[in-house]
């Protein structure tokens, strides 16, 4: 089974939740950019900064693109 963007974002969300961080800064490059965007949707108001570098935000393409 192939991991999705949402699966990767959950890997970021869970420790932030478990450790009780009130505010986080997220940075994502390439595939990590799409994961950071997904994680930001899970973390909502806790994201102070979202920085993306060369992120592939085209939802129509596969996670490997």
Describe the protein in words:
Keywords: Hydrolase. It comes from Ruegeria pomeroyi. This is Alpha/beta fold hydrolase. The chain has 65 residues and is an alpha+beta fold. It has one domain (5-53). The protein is 43% helix and 20% strand. The protein has helices at residues 5-19, 31-43; strands at 24-29, 47-53. The chain has a two-stranded parallel ribbon with strand order 1-2. The longest helix is centred in the first third of the chain and has 15 residues, at 5-19.
Q: How many helical elements? A: 2
The separation of the N and C termini measures 17 Å
Give the neighbour order of strands across the main sheet: 1-2
The coarse silhouette is globular
Task: Write the H/E string, N to C.
Answer: HEHE
Structural class: alpha+beta
Q: What fraction strand? A: 15-25%
| Unreliable residue runs | none
DSSP, total strands: 2
Number of domains: 1
Mean pLDDT: 89
Rounded radius of gyration (Å)? 12 Å
Largest sheet: 2 strands, parallel
**Percent in helix:** 40-55%
Protein name: Alpha/beta fold hydrolase
Pfam family, one: Abhydrolase_1
GO molecular function: hydrolase activity
Keywords: Hydrolase
Question: What's the gist of this structure?
Answer:
The chain has 65 residues and is an alpha+beta fold. Helix content is 43%, strand content 20%.
Write the layout of secondary structure elements.
Blueprint: H1 5-19, E1 24-29, H2 31-43, E2 47-53
Parallel strand pairs: 1-2
Helix pairs in contact: 1-2
């Amino acid at each position: 089974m192939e991991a999705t963007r949402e699966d990767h974002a959950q890997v970021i969300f869970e420790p932030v939740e478990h450790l009780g961080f009130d505010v986080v800064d997220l940075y994502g490059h390439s595939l990590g950019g799409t994961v950071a965007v997904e994680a930001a949707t899970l973390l909502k108001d806790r994201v102070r900064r979202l920085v993306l570098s060369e992120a592939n935000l085209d939802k129509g393409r596969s996670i490997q693109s």
